[in-house]
Amino acid sequence: MHSVMQRENMSSKREREVGDRVENEGRDNESKRQKLDEDSSPSPPPVSIVNPLSGLANNYADIDEEEDYVRREKGSVNERRNDGHRYGEADDSDEEDDSHDHLFSGRNNRQVEVRKDCPYLDTVNRQVLDFDFEKFCSVSLSNLNVYACLVCGKYYQGRGKKSHAYTHSLEAGHHVYINLRTEKVYCLPDGYEINDPSLDDIRHVLNPRFTAKEVEQLDKNKQWSRALDGSSYLPGMVGLNNIKETDFVNVTIQSLMRVTPLRNFFLIPENYQHCKSPLVHRFGELTRKIWHARNFKGQVSPHEFLQAVMKASKKRFRIGAQSDPVEFMSWLLNTLHADLKTSKKNTSIIYECFQGELEVVKEIPNKGTIDKKENTEDQNNAEKLSDGVNERYAFVKETSKMPFLMLGLDLPPPPLFKDVMEKNIIPQVPLFNILKKFDGETITEVVRPHIARMQYRVTRLPKYMILHMRRFTKNNFFVEKNPTLVNFPVKNLELKDYIPLPTPNENEKLRSKYDLIANVVHDGKPGEGFYRVFVQRKSEEL
Questions:
Q1: Which letter does DSSP use for residue 418 in this model?
Q2: Where is the composition biased (Basic and acidic residues) (predicted)?
Q3: CA–CA separation, 391 vs 493, rounded Å?
Q4: What is d(CA 151, CA 259) in angstroms, rounded to the nearest whole number?
Q5: 493 φ, ψ to 5°?
Q6: Cα atoms in the 13 Å half-sphere on the side-chain side of 121
């Protein structure tokens, strides 16, 4: 009885062990199936975060190098599909199609922590910050997504873990960076954004701003500003750095900064936001920096503007090559007008300030007239030949209207003889004498593009008149400079006393009185000297 019972117990125990083993195996198989199902199931769609800078990203490609690199690496993996499932997709990537149109718009939508306090703010060194130069990374020379280190002043690209700014923060221990496009400040390598009002002065130097009310008060401001080095400067009267023989650009800029309507137009970027010309925007940036009252320095470097000039002029005007300010002024005004004018109207702030109109009477020799009296008899030869000469040089008159942005004045030729002291006599001439060129009666002979006799008369005066004296003449051997001094009044130049002017309409008043606002002079020998400019300080009438 005992043995039978023991066998039953053994058989029932064996059955229980088999059942448990089968149950365990079933449970293991089920867990494996669940694991396989989990591995093969599609990942849930990530939560998309609205990027407030998505609009800027399209224009400036404001993406980190690290994210760009990861996207390229993951791109080939994401294209492999298996039964509608994607494998190897990054957790933080957005659901979107693979079209190139979305390259910068929705891929880097990450939330960035914003802090009001940062332990590294005391390392910011405003003395070394200089935002006048081109916004290029000092390592990669790229202009995409550039940050400025606020500790050493250098420019670096990106802020991701494989970017140059991130590497610099680890190697040099510099932790505070500002994005040169968005003006946001970040702490690296931690990666959080710093929102501290003490950094607003840096933002204002990076991108000066003016309200309409501030623009109106500029010419009334007599208060001097103080730079970080303790020097004082008057906004609008700051110096421009001479970057290797670029004084011809600097004197032109300083002169144009005295033209109030032109200055006011470029101080408000909304006035020309429709324009796509880099030259226009660089000129506007330079204008705002010159008139900014919160600069860190008492001078401005026109480096970015010069780069735009070199590109727009196809290196006709470039750094390291001296040029004539008259040629540069003419090119700059015409180029700015061409970039600013709208398709409907051929007008711009340039024409509103500087454009006048001339009536030109051109007398051209009548080449079709033939001397028919050369074969006359000998006794009447002298008389008839003289008649034939008069007939040969008969002129045909052509009258036309011509707009102008500046008027060229001809100087009398310098004396050929020296005085007793063996020095050249420097003649002087009043401005009114050389203005007679535009009295409508004085004849000016020209040889280019063909021989002609010209008479000029001003039919419309501009608000601001640019006069230039032709001092340099070129021949086959050298350039000669005319040293004649021109005497002119500083205030109240009344043109109607010296040249005939058009009669105004009934309801209009003839405005023909001008005050001097800028005067450019050349010192030294032709081809070797340099240019200086005297400008009016309007707030004090000096």
A1: B
A2: 10-38, 69-89, 99-108
A3: 44
A4: 38
A5: -80, 105
A6: 15
Compute, in degrees rounded to 10, the torsion defined by CA atoms 15, 20, 25, 29. 130
Q: Which residues of 7-44 are buried (b: 16+ CB within 10 A; e: fewer)?
A: eeeeeeeeeeeeeeeeeeeeeeeeeeeeeeeeeeeeee
> Taking 80 as the threshold, does the pLDDT of residue 294 lie above it?
yes
Distance between CA atoms of 297 and 295, rounded to whole angstroms?
5
Strand partners, 494: 513
Structure token digits, residue 516 = 């001097």
Q: Residue holding tokens 């600069």?
A: 295
Question: What does 464-522 look like in DSSP terms, one character per residue?
Answer: S--EEE--EEE-SS-EEE---EEE--SS-EEGGGTS--PPPPTT-----EE---EEEEE
Q: Distance (Å, rounded) from C-alpha 512 to C-alpha 493? A: 8
Q: How far is CA 472 from CA 408, 410, 479, 525, in A?
A: 12, 11, 7, 10
- Number of Cβ within 10 Å of residue 478's Cβ equals 9
pLDDT in tens, 6-27: 444 444 444 455 445 545 555 5
Report the SS3 class of residue 358: strand
Q: Measured between alpha carbons, how far is 164 from 139 in angstroms, rounded to an integer?
A: 7
Sign of the alpha-carbon dihedral angle for 392, 393, 396, 400: positive
CA dist 334 to 259, 312, 337, 469, Å? 16, 12, 5, 20
184 vs 203: CA distance, rounded Å:
9
Quick one: pLDDT at residue 392?
Answer: 54
**Backbone region of residue 183 per phi and psi (left: phi > 0; alpha: psi in -120 to 50; beta: other values):** left
For residue 102, the SS3 value is helix
Cα–Cα distance measured from residue 539 to residue 221, given in angstroms and rounded to the nearest whole number: 6
Q: Where are the beta strands (DSSP E) in 207-352?
A: 225-226, 232-233, 239-240, 299-300
Residue 479: other Cβ atoms inside 10 A = 11
Cα–Cα separations (whole angstroms), residue 147 to 143, 150, 402, 418, 542: 10, 9, 50, 63, 42
The token pair that represents 325 in the structure block: 């300010």
145 phi, psi to nearest 5 deg? 55, 60
The 10s digit of each residue's pLDDT in 482-510 is 888 999 889 888 888 888 888 777 777 78
376 SS3 class? coil
Tell me the C-alpha distance between 435 and 499, whole Å.
7
Residue pair 164/137 in contact (Cβ under 8 Å)? The answer is yes
The dihedral over CA atoms of 178, 147, 238, 322, expressed in degrees to the nearest 10, equals: 180
8 A C-beta contact, residue 258 and residue 518: yes
Residue 516: per-residue pLDDT: 93
Q: What does DSSP assign to residue 450?
A: S
Give me the phi and psi of 89, to 5 degrees please: -85, 140
Alpha-carbon span 408 to 468, nearest angstrom: 5
